[in-house]
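Go through the following before class.
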Amino acid sequence: MLGVNYKRAKISTSTTGAALVAAVTAKKIQVMALIIMGDGDTDVTLNSASTALTGAMPLAVSGNGLVVPFCGVPWLETVAGEALTVTLSAAVAISGCLVYLEE
């Protein structure tokens, strides 16, 4: 879409509470698309700082992942000024990428 400043972030962590996108003063982080794969069994929860935005989404060593396709409207958004973080139920490496807006 012309005039829209989509941003992209790499996902690569095994640390619960890790920031996927750093906080931006007075801006909401709006997730437009996402893919996450895991190296083992873990549940993934996306958060606005420490407040859950999703339920726990299971990833398994069998190779399933999470794909949230682009649909033109945000799937979820943080509170203004808060980071998009991830909570993991186990210290398992996750990787992927996301497309987001700062609004």
